[in-house]
Structures are given as C-alpha cells and as structure tokens.
Predict the 3D structure of the following.
Amino acid sequence: MDPQTTTQRPIKAFLGVAADVAMPVLDVLEPALALVPIPGLGLIPRTLSNVLKNVERARVNAEARKAFISQVEALGALIARIAYPNEALAHSGTGGSERRMGKAIDRVVQSDELIKGIQDLERTMKVLEARASRKRDAIVVADMQRDLMAAIEQFRFRANAAIDRGVQEVRRLLLEAEEDRLLEKLCSVDVGYRSVSEPKSQLMEGTRESILEGLRKWCTDHVPDPVAPKRVYFVSGGAGVGKSSVAYRHCVQLSEPSSATDAPRLGASIFIDRNRGGLTVELLFHALARQLAESLPVLRPHILDAAREYLKKGQRQLPEFSFKELLHEPLSRAAAEIPVGLRLVVVIDGLDECDEQPALQDGIRRLLELVTKFPWLYLFLASRPVPSIMTVLEGSMAAAIVHHYDLQQDLMNRADVKMFLESSVPQIPKYSSFLETHPSYLEELVERADGLFIFARIALNVLNQDLYRDNPEEGFQVVLSKENGLDKMDALYLGILRAAFPPRDLVQSPRLHARLLSFLHVVALLRSPLSPGCVALFADDIHGRSYILGRVGNGAQKQKALTLDDFVPIINLLRSVIYTDPSDGTLMPIHMSFYEFLVDRCTDPQYRVDRCAGHAALALSCLSLVFPGGVKDAVCHLPRLADLEHDYWLQAFLYGFYGDGSLSEHIGGAIPHEELKDALHTALTTAWFPYWTRIAVWAETPGQRALNLR
C-alpha cells in the first residue's frame, strides 16, 4: 500500500476527533508522521501529547481546558496540511501531473521557511512541556494557550510561505512544459549529436589528435591567427575520411563541464544524414533555434516569444522567414544580455547530404551573417567538397571569417589508421596467431587503407564476421581484392558482395538472386531507412515484378509470399556494410557510399541496382499501398508480419510516408512503361485517392512528363 495513503488516514482521523480523545490520536499521529520526509515534524505530536496529558490532569475549568485543546486541534490540522500539501497545491488552481505535483511537494518540504518554522515550533513545544510538568493551574494553562496560539500563527505564516513556494514550483513546471511543447512543435526531428548513428560517432581514442587539438584552439581564438581569429571552421574531405567522427568528438568535448566562465560550449549540433531522411533548410533553422533555446537560458525567452509569433503563421514557411524570425531577430534582442566572454559553438555536419543544395547556399550565407554580427557565436561546418558549398565557403565574402581545413591532407599521414588496424585486427580470435606468421597481410591492409578510416572500419567489420573469424587468410583476400576501373572503396564493396553471394551461386539459384536484387533495390532506393520487416514487405512486392524476373530468368518465380525469414540471411551476410540502428531496428549503410556504389558505380550486373527500373517497381508498390486496405492487405500477406495487422502506427507510417512525397520521387526517377502508366491513371481517376498523394504525383517532375499520363 502507498505509504502516503497509510499516513494520511490517522492524520485525517485527527482532524475530526473529539476533544476528550485527542491524546490517543496524537499518539497515533506520531508514527504516521515519521514516514513524512520533513525533518522534525514527527517529534511535535509526541511533545504536544505530553503537554496535553498534563493539561488533562490540571485542575482547571472545562472552558479553559476546551480552549487549549482547540488550539491543539488547530495545530494538528496545520501539521496535516504541511505533511501532505497535495490538496492545498491542487486548490491553488495550478493543476499539473503527478510528476509536477511531486516536485512541488519536494519544494515545500525542503523550503527554508518550513524548516525554520518547525524548529521554532519544536522549541515552543519543549518550553510548554516543561511548564506543564511543573505547575498546572488555570493561569498557567491560559498563558500556555496564548503562547501556543502565537506559535501556531508564526508556524502558519511560515507554512503558507512554504506552500506558496510549492505553488510557484507547479506554475514554473507548467510553464516549462508549455515551452517544451512549443519547441517540440517548432522542430520534432532529432538531429543533434546524441542521436547520430553509431558509425558516425566511432573515433578511436588517440586518433585525429591533430585536428581535435586545432579545434580546441580555434574556439578559444588561437587558430588560425590569435591576432585575427576566424570564427568559422570548415572541414572538407571525401567520403569516409572521418568528417562526421571528428564533428561528433568535437561536440562531446564542447559538452564536457568546465569551471572556466569563458570556456567554449556547445550551442547546437545538426548532423544531416541522408539515410535518416532529408533535412530541409527551413527545418535546419528550426532545429538551430530550438537547440539554442535549450542550451543558453538567456536566449530561451527571446526564441520562445519569436516561435509563438512565427507558428501563428504556420509551421512550414520559406527559409528567409524562419531564419529572420527564429534566429536573427531573437538573437539581436538578446545581444545586450549575453554574458561577457561567452563562446557558443554551432556544429553542422553533412552539408552535402542536404536535399536542397541551391537553398542551402543561401542558408550558409545567412549563417555567416550571424557569425559576423555576433562575436560570441562560432560555427563549425563539415562537408564533402561539392561545388555548391565550396562556392560559398571559399568566396570573397567568407575569406575573412572562414578557416578551411582539408581533412584529405591527413590521409598522407597514415599513423592514425595504422594505429587503428594494428590494435584492432589482432584482437579478433585466430588473427593474432595468424599475423605472427603472416605479418605482410596487415602491412598490406594498412597500405591499401591509405589513411582512409571508412575503408579500415569496413575491412575490420569483414574480418570480424563469423564467416571469416576462423579463416583469416580468406578474410584478408576479401578486403584486399582489387578490380580494374574501381577505386579501393568500390573494389572493397564489390569484393564483399562477391564473397557473400558468389556469382556461381546466383547463377545456380535464380530465386536467391531475385531475393538479393529485390533487397538491394529496396534499401538503396527508398527515401529513408525502414525496419527489416518493412524492407521485406517491399522486397516481396517488387520480387515478382517483370523487371526483377527479366534480370534473373523465369526460374525465380515465387512459390509463396516471401517473409522476413527469407531476408534475414541476406542482412546477416551484409553486416559489414549495412548497419542496424539499435534504437529502432532500422537498416542503413555503414557509409552512404555503399548505396551510391550499388546505384552509380557497380560494374558487375549481378549486383548493380538499376535506378530507373527500380524506381518504377517501387512506384507500383507504393501505389498498391495507397489503395483502401492496401497496407493492411500487404501486412497480412506476410505470415511473420501478420501480428502487425492491428499495428496502426506501422500502417499510418507506410500510408503517409508513401502518400506524401516518396511516390512522386519514385515516379520522377522511373522508366515509363505501360504497367506504371495504367496504375497511375487508375489511381488518379479514382475518387478515394488521397489528395496529398494526388498533388505529389501531379508535381512537375521529369519522370511525370516522361510518363505522359492520359
């Protein structure tokens, strides 16, 4: 039973007790109050009980005795009110959840006013107890009554002050909850460094020390020049050189507590990840505003006021308005309140993965304006050296404030990757003894990695797979394989595919080949990662399409619906390049370059993903989902997913996700053919077809024009 309920019973019983039985109730009240976390409160009933016993034995008239006991009852009621102030707090009109009420009660019982009031009351009770034990005539009882009344009034004053503190706490928590809801409405996407995928956060201790030390000096105005510091630090580099890992580690360093008042601190972090869905430039400004409000108290009220006004005009607005109203104006209003010496760092990684590159150029320019205007603001950016971004960050406007560090130059120093491989590979069972007699394999792997961390990381994943743990030589052959016309990363990807699914096996088993191609097309062409079950759902659907069957022959005809069990072996064999997010179970590549390789650069037709034909197959799958009951039918079609028939969240996700943008993307990249034309015509001429999907399909895209819908 709840101890609060147990103790409240005798306390409430005390409030209605008759005067002639007050003493035994006080005796019961004492152990009940012992469970209340208010120091000293439980001692008062004991002392009061002793006083009352002496008054009961006193030779005084009934009127004086009754007056004294009434004061005892008043004090008992006040003690009960303090012991459990729930009702007082609830009647204040503030309301609130159980968690907020608990915090408010803590504020009451821990308040200085209440502690001081209990101490004073305790002293008064001891004085009364001593006086009552020595002399018990009517005059003494009357004096004790007056002293007790004065003590009660003083205690009531302090108790009310304590409860007022609790009321204020409830109101503060309610306001805080409202503010949190407002910020959540502003941006509900988790894009900070704490939510980044695990592969992006991996950085071996002791590596990348040079650039991390440079970053520490940069945000304290010592890099590149202490006399004329630049407050924008731009890191560029090709795929897999470790930009995201450096950005993540820098965020961790900035988040570590420091006693120095002028120590740099993290203001906001944005990790743009194409695998998790495109982040628009407008949402970029929303996310920055939310995180700045959460990280710096002085900015919070200004950004909250701006957000309230901004959201009155709608959640989705042009980037120029979101930047001006959510960032520029509130930061300007807060400028006079910024603490002296503040250094607030904003980290943005993956600029090249933003879906809106033209709009992003303007977005970067606006962020540079903020840095120029506010001397306490520092900006760290990381990106592949794509022309749209380099044009802005190497332009004349940026020259005075942007320090450019090319991470590619670190590849010439192989020490970090060498340390990583030499410390990691021998820890794999059987590899240590193998390398003692074959040291050249590790030396060649270090040479092949050539300072590229992503190559070393994926190679280690391969060697660590169950398939090669007992066969070190075979594992090294896979990671050291070469292919004419492919660079080392693409050769590694192709080697992994050929080792996991040998070409001869695919020729001998068209069904295996069809399952593999279906899986690769789904994971490489879907807009964002899905759970293995959802991937199986789409792969099962496109497996029977003429496109897949035409690639592998009629021997791949399905005899039954494919289930998750049919794709688990494929997922397991590709663990070295496909990562399962532990937070939600979704699949994504260890590095985006693997999916890009499948779609753009794979030279072997056994594994290549055909972009246009694949988009057409997925468009047909999406169209089947938006028919009435389409999601439910598809889910029930797969035996292992039948238990999700009533999983309305999954159904809403599939229905809404593909009804709002993805369908038009697949149509835009599709090869026009009669089956797709007919399916689109049927959908668009059917009254039930969702209006948001209808708008998306009719959007002006090259694919839609090519289809030339009737």
Notes: Residues 193-412 form a domain with the Rossmann fold fold (CATH 3.40.50.300). The beta strands are 232-236, 265-271, 344-349, 377-383, 402-406, 578-580, 587-589. The chain is about 60% helix and 5% strand. The first helix runs from residue 3 to 15.
